[in-house]
Amino acid sequence: MTHRPHRTAPRFGVNYTPSQGWFHHWLDFDLDDVRADLDSVAALGLDHVRVFPLWPLFQPNRTLIRPRAVEQLGLLVDAAGERGLDVAVDGLQGHLSSFDFLPAWTRTWHRRNLFTDPEVLDGQSAYLRTLAAALADRPNFLGMTVGNEINQFSGDPHPDPDRISPDEAAAWLRRMLDACEEGAPGRFHLHAEYDAAWYQDDHPFTPAQAARIGGATAVHSWVFNGTAQRHGPDSVAVAQHAAYLIELSKAWATDPRRPVWLQEVGAPAPHIAPDRAAGFTRTTVAAALDCPDLWGITWWCSHDVDRSLADFPELEYSLGLLTTDRRVKPAGRALADAVAEARATAPAPAPRGTALVLDLPEEAPKRSSCAPGGAYFEAFMRLAADGARPAVVLAARAADPAYLAARGITELVTLDDLGTAGGTAGSGSGTGAAPR
């Protein structure tokens, strides 16, 4: 059974990256450090955090889920609640900031498909059920996300993928979400993919899965995917990329009012230079808040990565709203100001009356037209640059008056109308950007 959050004003939060030891902090868990980090997050006026237990540390053997690790997760959730912060928990990490974290019982001598092997599925289900059940009675526990961008393990450009079909991906998602629901009935459980699901031809995780399975649709917006490189840091396309993904996701939803969670967005250097990060934060938040049915915005990330830690891509070190010694950076101040202003004055966004028709089948095997440089992406950004507030509607729904009315759509525009139907296509493999 899918549970949806109550519709309220948008939530504002941050992906919690511990200031001491990054996610390796689970190896040397220090509750005082966690409390100090959460104090610095709460001081920004945010209302929730998304947190990341490392799967191989919590479940080092298929039949061993470490009680002490689960207890420490509970302590973190309780510490957040003491500071007025709700907590969403990602389960299968999986993949974070260019590093893979998979338990030994899935790799090398024990190599088996993460998405289809019966024993792996049993282990994953037990793990997600255990985490959810341990937190189910805590009032500030929002729910589980199955994992962070775990779709990256299913195909290119991963160097050693566990290949699956779209049907197998859908079956895996449903089983994992069922496990979350069994552990914590009625909470806000969902899944989240990196943008290959929206942009990459033939990727097994599809837009329809993202927009129909789970309690909300999650989108992760990263302008290093070709948007900033093609259009420049001060472009409409960069400012509107997160809003574009929010609106693009709605096209595949069967529920015209399905909530969308902008679960990751950040200002990656050098694509967004440090002196532009605050401006990027303001414009991105404003654009996202102009999208109806937005559940919330969760910025990536809370604290910078300490430069004593080796081998991260350069952009990962400086994505924090705060430094490793918990000082607020310009982007952090910009987000805090935007949140305060939105709570004080921002009205609910009006419906987006003009929709750009997307002529793709609902299963969308070929979707690179929607990627940066693709004909559809560029047409949407042209409309936005001209001052429009475009929505997205599939061609199959464009003749459904009840559906259009439910979304407040009164005008349809096609690529032919804009003279771009034969425009630049995507590469056929999406953006080519690595997941995070």
Automatic annotation (TrEMBL):
InterPro entries: GH
Record keyword Hydrolase present: yes
MF (Gene Ontology): hydrolase activity
The protein, known as: Glycosyl hydrolase
Source superkingdom: Bacteria
Organism: Streptomyces showdoensis
Keywords: Hydrolase
